Amino acid sequence: MHHQWLLLAACFWVIFMFMVASKFITLTFKDPDVYGVKQEPLMLTAMTKVEKIQVPEEKCLPEEFQPTGNVFSEDPMHQPLVHVKRIELLRNVCRDAALRNLSHTTISKFVLDRIFVCDKHKILFCQTPKVGNTQWKKVLIVLNGAFSSIEEIPENIVHDHEKNGLPRLSSFSDSEIQKRLNLYFKFFIVRDPFERLISAFKDKFVHNPRFEPWYRHEIAPGIIRKYRKNRTETRGLQFEDFVRYLGDPNHRWLDVQFGDHIIHWVTYVELCAPCEITYSVIGHHETLEDDAPYILKEAGIDHLVSYPTIPPGITVYNKTKVERYFSGISKRDIRRLYARFEGDFKLFGYREPDFLLN
């Protein structure tokens, strides 16, 4: 009988030790995969270094400059893998010396003018025209308190910077600019660079729904005079004229004449300085249905405002449309255009168009 009790006790001891060992193994080798895709340790290490925020050397920052939202988490495991990969790709391309001239720019007044500020919720939004910016402006207008809901905002107010209550980063002092760049949640949206150029051409030179006459009556004639091959052709600006202008290495002399109107077709690099400013999130127009809620959540404002409803299919990349617009353009002009926008393609993970590879 005594031996039976000893045997039973030994069995319980073995079972107990097995349970402890199993728990230890589970905790030690827990699957680190996110959404079914394994993250490499090297990438995680690099991301932790990239995302580290350099706070100005002050013992105590004023309350209005204290970080908010989730952007300051240094653990990329807390972020969906797609956003980790986007920032990692951006930083890798920024370090590529061969692309430096296409990926770097100075944080000039031109860049600071593109960045809108929401001090109440500590958000900076860099405007990249032709990528759904009107809707993001509406979100910030509501957050800044100018209107209580997106539906109340008149369309003519959204882009009127005297009335929409959206200050630009350039309106602050150098020290105030630096504090906001260091501590605020920062984001912008991109889309396929060539599709964006088509959108800009159609919006400004074909339909012109906002009745901005300078595009057709000042900018278009300037491009035609310089870049149209057939001088007897009397039609308005054609897409091939537009491509020739954009791909010209000496385009800047016209850009100076056109002023800030060029924001609708200059590169994302020139607009937002992504290699100089540590952005928190980079949304993609093609995945905006997922990216918009994620951005609102990461900024800590998803309980305050919603991104306007996205019509079905509007964000889908239209490969057929892009190929149709470029079908009549010479390979030489397309290559020159790509050479200018290569930084945008590489920084944000867009493939070189198939019609350039054939």
UniProtKB/TrEMBL annotation:
GO biological process annotation, one example: proteoglycan biosynthetic process
Signal peptide boundaries? 1-21
Gene Ontology cellular component list: Golgi membrane
Recorded GO molecular functions are: sulfotransferase activity
The record's subcellular locations are: Golgi apparatus membrane
Source domain of life is Eukaryota
Coiled-coil ranges from the UniProt annotation? none
Where does the UniProt entry say this protein principally localizes? Golgi
Listed SUPFAM superfamilies: P-loop containing nucleoside triphosphate hydrolases (SSF52540)
- How does the record say this protein sits in the membrane? Single-pass type II membrane protein
Keyword set, alphabetical order? Carbohydrate metabolism, Glycoprotein, Golgi apparatus, Membrane, Signal, Signal-anchor, Transferase, Transmembrane, Transmembrane helix
What family classification does the UniProt entry report for this protein? Belongs to the sulfotransferase 2 family.
Q: What is this protein called?
A: Carbohydrate sulfotransferase
Q: Give the source lineage, highest ranks first.
A: Eukaryota, Metazoa, Chordata, Craniata, Vertebrata
